[in-house]
Amino acid sequence: MNTKRKIEIFSADCPLCEETVELVKRIACPACEITVLDMKDAAVADRAKSLGVRTVPAVAVDGKPAECCIGRGPDEAALRTMGIGQP
Q1: Which of 34, 87, 66, 75 is nearest to 56 (CA)?
Q2: Residues 62-71, mean pLDDT to the nearest whole number
Q3: β-strands 32-38, 5-11 pairing
Q4: What's the mean pLDDT in 45-71?
């Protein structure tokens, strides 16, 4: 029995996102069901946020974000350390 693997790609339709879409399509198998989701859609952005996705492109497999795609994004403390907010 072949179980489908649900792959979600969270994309902002930029060149880096397109590279990720192509990578996933290239390595996907027949049991992979790929969906490209537009982060400009508020419902998609909410779903991504609920999964812990903070930057795009990002990939989730069977509802679980790939380790390379979670917990990143702007961090206020790191930005302040770089001098943002200081004269």
Answers
A1: 66
A2: 85
A3: parallel
A4: 89
